[in-house]
Amino acid sequence: MPRIYVVGIGPGNMEDMTDRAEKAIQDADVIVGYYTYIKLIKDYFPHKEFIESGMTKEVERCELVMKLAGEGKNVALISSGDSGIYGMAGIMLELMNKSKSQIPVEVIPGITAASSAASILGAPIMHDFAVISLSDLMTPLELIYKRLECAAEGDFVICIYNPKSKTRCDYIIKARDIILKYSKESTPVGIVRNAGRENEEYNITDLKNMLDYKIDMFTVIIIGNSSTYIENGKIITPRGYKID
Amino acid sequence: MPRIYVVGIGPGNMEDMTDRAEKAIQDADVIVGYYTYIKLIKDYFPHKEFIESGMTKEVERCELVMKLAGEGKNVALISSGDSGIYGMAGIMLELMNKSKSQIPVEVIPGITAASSAASILGAPIMHDFAVISLSDLMTPLELIYKRLECAAEGDFVICIYNPKSKTRCDYIIKARDIILKYSKESTPVGIVRNAGRENEEYNITDLKNMLDYKIDMFTVIIIGNSSTYIENGKIITPRGYKID
Question: Residue limits of the Tetrapyrrole methylase domain (chains A, B) (predicted)?
Answer without folding.
Answer: 3-209
